[in-house]
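Please produce the structure of this protein holding zinc ion.
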Amino acid sequence: MLSDQELLRYSRQILLAQVDIDGQLRLKQSKALVVGVGGLGSPVALYLAAAGVGELHLADFDTVDLTNLQRQIIHDSDSVGLAKVDSAIKRLQAINPEITLVAHRQALDEDSLAAAVAAVDLVLDCSDNFTTREAVNAACVAARTPLVSGAAIRLEGQLSVFDPRRDDSPCYHCLYGHGSEAELTCSEAGVIGPLVGLVGSLQALEALKLLAGFGEPLVGRLLLIDALTTRMRELRVKRDPGCAVCGNRHG
Ligand SMILES: [Zn+2]
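Below is the modeled complex.
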């Protein structure tokens, strides 16, 4: 059930036929894990909390640094030195006291990551490095949990959704298993703030669609965003039958 306060708080999205009361209830009953509360994780956590996703799990072992504030808009100057997860939770509680927030302040190893993924319905990868992305993907494939993956570096952004519940869906490793410049991070290569905001907002949008059950998710499609020209391209991406992570999966 939704309280009168909740009906008011979420009224502008409940007005949408695609969401309605049923979709809002599905959001309330949903649990999502946000891996990384930085540039991508900031808009993701802010929008999912504001939209009423019932349980938001936040994972980040880092503390807020002054160099983060140019793009990590969930944190503020008073939060410098605090654990990112604690800084984020303070802000999210102020935005929406109706939801439950769960903190993972330690780095997740294979077992704790598997447990963290098993506890939720959907995962958003907002991390900044290839090793974490591969580990999160493997855990999502094993648990058959949908993964909304975003990345932004310099002036380029990428977005896709991997849904191991679907036989036709590739996984992160199908696409990126061969490397490329994935090891570069924003702290080394630089990035512009609104671009991570854009990619993170699109991640939040895809998550709300999957959790509330409307629209067409970005599965089997890779969205490429060029901030220099404000152009977006879409590539079809196929599942790799020989993929070391999802290749032996049986439908
Ligand atoms: Zn794969």
